[in-house]
Specification:
The protein is of the alpha/beta class. 24% of the residues lie in helices and 25% in strands.
Length: 265
C-alpha cells in the first residue's frame, strides 16, 4: 500500500509573533517566522505512520510545497519513519493561493502511483479547507474531509467516520482516494528518536522545481491565483475560564444544563 501525505509548514502561533503583511498583495511575510507542521497535517501523518508500524510493507511519501528552509523539517519526518519526502519549491510558486497550490501539488501527484492521499482538512494560517477537495478534483479521485478515524483500510477500500454538520457519518470509499483529517482525530505525531537524529536520509529526500513540473507561470504564483485578499486578521484566542463543579446532584445538573445548551444532549 502506498500513502502520500500532503503537509504544510505554517507560522508558529504565539503572542510574541509579529505577523507582517505585504501591502500590495495581502500575503503574509513568512521569511522570518518560525515554521511548524500544521496540526491537522501532523494528525494525518501520524495515522499513516501508525499503519506502517502495523504493516511494514506500507510505503509513505510526504509531499509539500514551500521554501527550501523547510528541508530539515521534512528530513526529520523521514527519520520518524516515512520512506520518502518531496519538496516542491520554486520562486514562481511564491504567492500561490489554495487553487494555484493545488495545481502544483496535483501536477506532481498525476505522475505518481498511490492508493491513498492523506492530508489535514484545514491549516491554522488560512483555514480554507480547499486543498484536499481541489487536489482530488484535479486528480479525478474520490475524497472526503473532516475524517475522524479510520475503522478498516486496505488497498481497495476504506471504512471511516467523518464529521458532517452536527452528525458523524460512517462511510466507505474505494481507492484511489484522498482523506482529509480533522484535528479531532487526536492522533499525535511522535518525536525523532535520539539514535535517529543524525541519520543520513539524503537518498530519501528530493527537491523539485518548476523545471521538472513544467507549469506555466500563468497557472501558479500570484498570476495563477484568483483569490483577492481584502484583509488579513490575526485571530487572538481568549483563555477560557475553567469551571469546577462538585460531584453531587447539583454538580451533575450543572453539567447536564451546560451540555444541553450546546446541543450535546
Amino acid at each position: 500500500m502506498k500513502i502520500i501525505c500532503l503537509v504544510k509548514f505554517v507560522p508558529e502561533p504565539n503572542k510574541k509573533t509579529n505577523f507582517e503583511v505585504e501591502r500590495t498583495t495581502g500575503n503574509m511575510k513568512r521569511e522570518k517566522l518560525k515554521a511548524i507542521l500544521n496540526p491537522e497535517d501532523a494528525s494525518a501523518l501520524a495515522y499513516a505512520l501508525k499503519m506502517k508500524s502495523e504493516n511494514p510493507e506500507t510505503r509513505i511519501e510526504v509531499l509539500t510545497m514551500g521554501p527550501e528552509k523547510v528541508s530539515a523539517a521534512l528530513q526529520n519526518i523521514v527519520r520518524l519513519g516515512a520512506d520518502q519526502a518531496t519538496l516542491l519549491s520554486d520562486r514562481i510558486y511564491q504567492g500561490s493561493d489554495s487553487w494555484a497550490t493545488s495545481m502544483v501539488l496535483a501536477s506532481y501527484l498525476k505522475k505518481q502511483n498511490f492508493d491513498y492521499i492523506f492530508s489535514g482538512t484545514q491549516t491554522i494560517d488560512g483555514a480554507t479547507g480547499h486543498i484536499g477537495p481541489q487536489v482530488a478534483e484535479l486528480l479525478k479521485i474520490n475524497q472526503f474531509s473532516d475524517v475522524l478515524n479510520l475503522k478498516e483500510i486496505n488497498e481497495e477500500t476504506v471504512l471511516f467516520d467523518a464529521a458532517f454538520d452536527k452528525e458523524v457519518l460512517s462511510l466507505q470509499m474505494h481507492t484511489p482516494c484522498l482523506l482529509s483529517m480533522n484535528l479531532e482525530a487526536k492522533m499525535k505525531l511522535g518525536f525523532v528518536r535520539l539514535e535517529d537524529m543524525e541519520k543520513d536520509v539524503a537518498s530519501q529526500f528530493q527537491i523539485l522545481s518548476n523545471e521538472e513540473l513544467q507549469l506555466s507561470v500563468d497557472e501558479v504564483g500570484r498570476k495563477g491565483s484568483p483569490t483577492f485578499v481584502r484583509k488579513d486578521v490575526a485571530v487572538v484566542h481568549e483563555k477560557k475560564e475553567t469551571l469546577y463543579v462538585k460531584t453531587d446532584e447539583a454538580g451533575l445538573e450543572e453539567v447536564y444544563q451546560f451540555l444541553k445548551e450546546y446541543d450535546y444532549v
